[in-house]
Amino acid sequence: MLFNSLDYLIFFISCYIIYWSSPRNFRKYILIVFSLIFYAYWSKAFLFHFFAFIVLSHFAILGILKTKKKIFLIMGIVVNLANLIFFKYILTYLQYIIKEDSVRFPFSDSITSIALPLAISFYTFQMIAYIIDAWRGKFTESPFLDFVLFILFFPQLIAGPIMRHDDFYNQIEKAQLNWDYVQRGFYHLISGIIKKVLIADQIAKLINPVWNDPAGYDGFSVFLAVLGFSVQVFCDFSGYTDFARGSAFLLGYEIPENFKAPYFSVSFTELWTRWHITLSTWIRDYLYIPLGGNKVSETRFKFNTILVMSLGGLWHGNTYTFFFWGLLHGILLGIERSLFGKIDRKNLNLQKKIFGFIIVTIFWLIGASFFRAENFQKLILLWSNIINLKGNIIYKPDFWVLVFACYSIQFIEFRNYFSPKFANMGKWLVPTTCIIVYFALVKMETQVETFIYFQF
């Protein structure tokens, strides 16, 4: 069920009315029911699979809390990682060899028909973090239904943000409807529509033909296709997060921010504090710090950084291009640390900020080509055509308007997205923006597109 679809609108309005019309003590159960319906809408079979792993994980958590035995920690992590590795990597590899090599063995036809469970990367990391936090003693009890709601909470279920227990648990009994949350909810929903429907989906129509046939376009259009994809993936994923946060606000919950103007970063370290923030902090807290964090030698620091970023790349996808995307960013972080140490944006003059912005942008675009391309053959074909002087072109006014809109939105985010300055403007700003967005949607040729991060 896509956030930018009529089905979700009907689903959410139904949930909203029933939820707020019910006594406070029943609201948790209503959210659980609607969250189950939300996932079942995609697949009833995988809902049972998902729920089984919720039960297994909670069994491990209770074992940790009651016995403090490490076997329950190991069991909880191994079970969840085995689930992720099988579906995302082993199963995909088996499907590939069956398709490409015409290999046949028992159940091969059934194997090719199995899909990747929706949201498996996100809910796996969320459950693993919860299990490790239980082992670290960050909480002493774990009511089963609270855990179910924490994992299944439908606004963030499919593509994050990746929540921690302390982001959510203390809100379960306190969620209430107030003007501040309603206003912030509408701001985020409007932002999500603008990013996803009016920018990401529109620029996708311009750049997809170039990605499908780079040789048919001139070199500058190839470069713009890479730039356009960076605009698309930001507006698509941060647009999803805005939909998620907006829906959560309207239900009385605040879930973590996941993007904050990443394309205004002046260092690679800053970039990863602004892009997919909840994944970056997850990698830091559950991989990087256990490997030694900053309290290791310079050589070990570089190795750990490259390792965790490479694993972060593999988390995104099961192809080697994702691995090299993560590897590239790990190397860049290591080089930056060696040459400049810890970079504080506040201590940089304007020239250094501009220089840093240009360098980060260039390497982000290089990485974006790894992120989008399925294999090295596609990458070579793409970049070898950068010197083409002939072919079709995409550098039209529409393209530049979309790029400008993307950076304008990030400028607003950079200047404190929902600052108190907006609080007194909500009564007229929300309806005015809604009307503008409505007419933009009516005028544009729109098509319901899935979110890029749904595949992860």
UniProtKB/TrEMBL annotation:
<dbReference type="InterPro" id="IPR024194">
    <property type="entry name" value="Ac/AlaTfrase_AlgI/DltB"/>
</dbReference>
<dbReference type="GO" id="GO:0042121">
    <property type="term" value="P:alginic acid biosynthetic process"/>
</dbReference>
<dbReference type="InterPro" id="IPR051085">
    <property type="entry name" value="MB_O-acyltransferase"/>
</dbReference>
<dbReference type="GO" id="GO:0016746">
    <property type="term" value="F:acyltransferase activity"/>
</dbReference>
<keyword id="KW-1133">Transmembrane helix</keyword>
<keyword id="KW-0808">Transferase</keyword>
<keyword id="KW-0012">Acyltransferase</keyword>
<dbReference type="InterPro" id="IPR028362">
    <property type="entry name" value="AlgI"/>
</dbReference>
<feature type="transmembrane region" description="Helical">
    <location>
        <begin position="6"/>
        <end position="21"/>
    </location>
</feature>
<dbReference type="GO" id="GO:0005886">
    <property type="term" value="C:plasma membrane"/>
</dbReference>
<feature type="transmembrane region" description="Helical">
    <location>
        <begin position="393"/>
        <end position="412"/>
    </location>
</feature>
<feature type="transmembrane region" description="Helical">
    <location>
        <begin position="72"/>
        <end position="91"/>
    </location>
</feature>
<keyword id="KW-0812">Transmembrane</keyword>
<dbReference type="InterPro" id="IPR004299">
    <property type="entry name" value="MBOAT_fam"/>
</dbReference>
<feature type="transmembrane region" description="Helical">
    <location>
        <begin position="313"/>
        <end position="333"/>
    </location>
</feature>
<protein>
    <submittedName>
        <fullName>MBOAT family protein</fullName>
    </submittedName>
</protein>
<keyword id="KW-0472">Membrane</keyword>
<keyword id="KW-1003">Cell membrane</keyword>
<comment type="similarity">
    <text>Belongs to the membrane-bound acyltransferase family.</text>
</comment>
<feature type="transmembrane region" description="Helical">
    <location>
        <begin position="26"/>
        <end position="42"/>
    </location>
</feature>
<feature type="transmembrane region" description="Helical">
    <location>
        <begin position="424"/>
        <end position="441"/>
    </location>
</feature>
<dbReference type="Pfam" id="PF03062">
    <property type="entry name" value="MBOAT"/>
</dbReference>
<feature type="transmembrane region" description="Helical">
    <location>
        <begin position="111"/>
        <end position="132"/>
    </location>
</feature>
<feature type="transmembrane region" description="Helical">
    <location>
        <begin position="144"/>
        <end position="163"/>
    </location>
</feature>
<feature type="transmembrane region" description="Helical">
    <location>
        <begin position="354"/>
        <end position="373"/>
    </location>
</feature>
